[in-house]
Amino acid sequence: MVYMTTKKIAPSILSADVMNLERDVKMAEAAGADLFHIDIMDGHFVPNMSFSPSIVEGMRRVTDKPLDVHLMIDNPDEYIRPIVEAGADTIMIHTESTKHIYRSIDLAKSLGVKAGVVVNPGTPLENVKELFPIIDQILVMTVNPGFGGQKFIPGMTKKIQRLDQLRQTSADDDFEIEVDGGINDETIVKCAQAGADIFVAGSYLYNGQPGFEDRVNTLKKLVEE
Ligand code: DX5
Ligand code: ZN
């Protein structure tokens, strides 16, 4: 499959101001964000807690942009339906979080949304290759999951490159490559060159206010080059 996808910027609301979330969502929309990335963490699968499924319903009320939900929870199958019903557009599941990743992805897809698998920095692509024909997206973690504001792991660009090569050489594989963790105006260039399509950015965008719009535009320009 030859990829000519539009590159997309996905602000991660983990770094937004929870007391002013609607304002921060509108600000990102006005700045040209393509979709929103929502991290749900349970304090078990990752050593941190964040939003619960109700955040998706709240987000759906204030934006029409696609909602990309990154599940960092044990037993994801239990929460997929409520999250889809709350208005999610894409469900991303860590392969280590479920006993049956193929089934979990099938479940999300059967509910009419896009679905994909998330690979941690230490997870080999070999572990998820069999999923390529059924996924819409694959999320390459470029930090260990659980926290915003961490440093990009440089070795992950090779992984993105290999992934891009794998999808180019198989007619059955048609998925977008998403990257998440430590994305800024330097690392985004490396990821784009390696073949990534969707760029999640949390602290780079939200912790630099004022100047949010400029930052979104900077990222957009860098990936279009
Ligand atoms: C981390 C989360 C990310 C986080 C990224 O586990 O999955 O989505 O918000 O934050 P930054 O862009 O600050 O690394
Ligand atoms: Zn995330």
TrEMBL record:
The keyword NAD does not apply. The keyword Transmembrane helix does not apply. The lineage of its organism: Bacteria, Bacillati, Bacillota, Bacilli, Lactobacillales. The active site is at 39 (proton acceptor), 180 (proton donor). Its cofactor is Zn(2+); Fe(2+); a divalent metal cation; Mn(2+). Binds 1 divalent metal cation per subunit. Substrate binds at residues 12, 70, 146-149, 180-182, 202-203. SUPFAM superfamilies: Ribulose-phoshate binding barrel. InterPro entries: Aldolase_TIM, Ribul_P_3_epim, Ribul_P_3_epim-like, RibuloseP-bd_barrel. Belongs to the ribulose-phosphate 3-epimerase family. GO terms for cellular component: cytoplasm. GO terms for biological process: pentose catabolic process; pentose-phosphate shunt. This is Ribulose-phosphate 3-epimerase. GO terms for molecular function: D-ribulose-phosphate 3-epimerase activity; metal ion binding. It comes from Companilactobacillus nodensis DSM 19682 = JCM 14932 = NBRC 107160. Coiled coil: none annotated. Pathway: Carbohydrate degradation.
